[in-house]
């Protein structure tokens, strides 16, 4: 079989559902990775393509797959401030407390970048605010450093 990795990843990036369906029907691995470890799901989520993400998840995409640095789709949604994508991932069982290589979590990303709608969503969904990164810092510590008053209130 030809290698359609890049085609599937590009289709996920632009949200081309027709191409995604066709490639998956031809047996292309839904969890295929590029050289950076990105899966089609990671790319769809990072590029705010919830319809493509949902199709990939329904086709067996690993909701907790991380790239080569350990960053998951939920972390990307939190970093970019994409509540619809985050909600989709949470509904599909995303690990709320997954940590990347430096120990950061989706909650920490949301806190650091002022994505307070995501901070609230993650906390309401059961994210553990007590998780520490490799420096021994929690989401609350990061909120304090950033002067993110809303997150400080949510995390207190």
UniProtKB/TrEMBL annotation:
ANK repeats lie at residues 3-35, 36-68, 69-101, 102-134. Pfam families: Ank, Ank_2. Keywords: ANK repeat, Repeat. InterPro entries: Ankyrin_rpt, Ankyrin_rpt-contain_sf. It comes from the Bacteria. PANTHER family: ANKYRIN REPEAT DOMAIN-CONTAINING PROTEIN 39-RELATED (PTHR24171). This is Ankyrin repeat domain-containing protein. The lineage of its organism: Bacteria, Pseudomonadati, Bacteroidota, Cytophagia, Cytophagales.
